[in-house]
Design goal:
It is a single chain. This protein has 211 residues and is α/β, with parallel strands linked by helices. The chain is built from six helices and eight strands, in the order αβαββββαβαβαβα. The strands form two sheets. Strands 2-1-6-7-8 form a five-stranded parallel sheet, sandwiched between helices. It has a three-stranded antiparallel sheet with strand order 3-4-5, with helices on both faces. The protein is globular and about 45 Å long. The relative contact order is 0.21.
Length: 211
């Protein structure tokens, strides 16, 4: 089973989300590939859309090895870690500044939606390791969120098991036995650039908090 493109993938996710149409839902799209997915879902149900801005903190001796993650309001560090508090503080500051710049690029002066008492649906174009989403969920759980749903077109089996344990529902139509990469399950997996993200977000008329 291949998806034609991200629009096709989003359209196949939409029926699974029908049951949430009367709840106070916010779509949390992971940029950049998750934004087209979130765009079509938000448009189908008139849900507001927000960006899930999370980035890893790398170990000082191996930047590719994640020791934690940061979002625009919070951060999480894996324990135990032989890393100084000053290293963590400096990296949290740098990463957060970068995330805020990216958010402003995509959303302008739009104020982030208050997620308290909302059902949030995290969307992306697929999940490989799932580490970013897992870190994001850990930080989201510190808020007063009603439900956390993850909805993606395709995911690696190992990641599915880990994510299912920490969310209220995990929706994924395609969980292949052998997973090589997200792009292998799309006929068109063209890179989503910044301008496309900005255009999609600007087009949506639902960029406002849920009342």
């Amino acid at each position: 089973m291949f998806y034609e493109n991200r629009k096709d993938a989003a359209m196949q996710l939409i029926p699974y989300l029908e049951k949430y149409k009367h709840e106070q839902v916010v779509i949390l799209a992971i940029p950049r590939g998750g934004v087209p997915i979130g765009y079509y879902i938000a448009k189908a149900f008139d849900f507001p859309i927000e960006l899930l801005m999370t980035k890893k903190i790398g170990h000082p001796t191996n930047p590719e090895f994640a020791i934690g993650a940061v979002n625009m309001e919070d951060y999480i560090i894996d324990e135990p870690m032989d890393v100084s508090d000053s290293y963590i503080a400096e990296n949290v500051k740098q990463v957060r500044e970068n995330l805020k710049e990216r958010y402003k690029l995509f959303m302008g002066d739009y104020k982030p939606i208050d997620l308290d008492n909302k059902t949030v649906i995290i969307v992306d174009d697929g999940i490989a390791t799932g580490n970013t989403i897992l870190s994001s969920i850990s930080m989201l759980r510190r808020k007063k969120i009603n439900k956390i749903i993850v909805a993606v077109p395709v995911a690696a089996k190992q990641s599915v098991r880990k994510i299912r344990e920490v969310v209220d529902e995990f929706i994924c139509p395609k969980i292949p036995e052998y997973f090589i990469g997200v792009g292998m399950h799309y006929k068109d997996f063209s890179e989503v650039n910044d301008q496309e993200v900005i255009a999609l977000l600007q087009e949506l008329k639902s960029l406002k908090p849920v009342m």
